[in-house]
Design goal:
single chain; about 425 residues; mainly alpha; Rna Polymerase Sigma Factor, Chain: A; 20 helices
């Protein structure tokens, strides 16, 4: 009897801690976004976030999980931050900037602190703040991935092949710029939105890409990131129904429709497009994405996201790899290169030409790009594409060297296993 009496509280404590961990994983960035709005300072809000979860670990096992956990955390973090600043002001030199920021951003009305169900989403405010034109583009991306999506500095550094201290410096400088320039934490007005849109769209798509094909680690995808990017794009579309917003959402939906088929259930390795089980593709997402891109194209204001979404739609609508209209895809890449020329787009076009005209035609283009485009020298997908075409042409030695080069540039573990398997297959031949 005594054992059962003592076991129940232990179970309750463990359950509460599991809940705190789950909420931190799923809700911490939303809590942080609201705390930034209420406190007006990134660093103070981040400290408040950790204080709030520390308080949850202390109180919830004893008192139970509150009915509105996010609201509880926001309120706890906000008031602990205010108390901390008041205590510091007694013993430290007066920091007018920090004191005034919090004093003007955080009233003593508890109802304001717990109003986390507001229609205007705080994470969307945070995206616009992180992507403010006063910040350098690389700082916009780093700050958004860190603050909106919760990636660590090391994960961001791995994603962009940049030293972690460099990324950390970018984030610190961006926060200081926001503070010193008093950049407002708000969604821009309707008149300001068009000029503010491009960096936001670029950043949302970069977040999606990190989720769709994680740059490093043991998992090929991070659905939390790709799902968050889609959610942000939906919010943005409701705010600004512009063709490129529609197109970006369409592009992400069409890519995400294949998510469950992109990884082998047995090995975790990537499954290439022509080997995926198309019966498992999400037809609802394909229908929504196709309708959005058709709506965007009908405006005749065609941007790069619209063309990329149109390419994705051609793939999504093909009932089999053999039925894919590669001629149309090459034509769309020609348009995309005129709108937004880049070596990666040239590489993708070369792969499409290989599918339309045969591996020799594509390989000639890829080898020319590797000779002429220094940007592709350390791009693993360029070497993997060359290796695949050499393999199809029976040029085994060249294929082996290209696969080894791609492998040396790959940090994503499932991709590494796929490349290692390709090398083993070559050895068997």
């Amino acid at each position: 009897m005594d054992d059962e009496t003592h076991a129940q509280p232990r179970f309750a404590v463990d359950a509460a801690r599991d809940t705190v961990e789950a909420i931190y994983r799923d809700e911490s960035r939303a809590v942080l976004a609201t705390l930034i709005r209420l406190l007006g300072d990134f660093d103070i809000a981040e400290e408040a976030l950790h204080e709030a979860f520390r308080a949850a670990l202390e109180h919830w096992p004893r008192e139970g999980v509150p009915a509105k956990p996010r609201a509880w955390l926001v309120s706890a973090g906000r008031f602990r931050a205010i108390d901390q600043i008041r205590r510091r002001s007694r013993f430290e030199p007066y920091d007018e900037t920090a004191h005034d920021t919090v004093a003007t951003s955080a009233s003593d009305d508890p109802a304001e602190a717990v109003d986390v169900e507001a229609v205007e989403d705080d994470r969307l405010r945070l995206v616009f703040t992180c992507c403010h034109p006063a910040l350098a583009p690389d700082a916009q991306v780093a700050l958004t991935l860190r603050e909106v999506c919760g990636l660590t500095t090391e994960e961001i550094a791995a994603a962009y092949l940049t030293p972690a201290p460099t990324i950390a410096q970018r984030i610190v400088r961006a926060k200081a710029k926001i503070r010193d320039a008093r950049i407002p934490y708000e969604v821009p007005t309707a008149a300001e939105l068009p000029e503010r849109l491009d960096p936001v769209l670029r950043t949302i798509y970069l977040v999606f890409n990190e989720g769709y094909a994680a740059s490093s680690g043991s998992a090929l995808t991070r659905h939390d990131l790709s799902g968050e990017a889609i959610r942000l794009a939906r919010l943005l579309l409701g705010l600004l129904p512009e063709p490129e917003v529609m197109s970006l959402l369409a592009l992400m939906l069409l890519h995400d429709s294949r998510r469950t088929t992109r990884t082998s259930l047995t090995t975790g390795e990537p499954v290439l497009l022509d080997e995926q089980d198309r019966t498992r593709w999400d037809r609802a997402q394909i229908a929504e994405g196709t309708a959005l891109v058709e709506r965007a194209l009908s405006t005749r204001r065609v941007g790069p996201y619209a063309v990329q979404a149109a390419i994705a739609a051609v793939h999504a609508q093909a009932p089999s790899p053999e039925a894919t209209d590669w001629g149309e895809i090459v034509g769309l890449y020609d348009i995309l290169l005129r709108i937004e020329p880049s070596p990666v787009i040239e590489l993708n076009r070369a792969v499409a030409i290989a599918m339309r005209d045969g591996p020799q035609a594509g390989l000639a283009l890829i080898e020319a790009l590797l000779d002429q485009r220094a940007e592709l020298a350390n791009y693993r997908h360029a070497h993997a594409a060359r290796a695949d075409l050499c393999r199809r042409l029976g040029r085994i030695g060249e294929a082996r060297a290209a696969y080894e080069r791609a492998l040396s540039l790959t940090q994503q573990e499932p991709e590494r296993r796929l490349l290692q398997r390709r090398l083993a297959e070559l050895e068997a031949r």
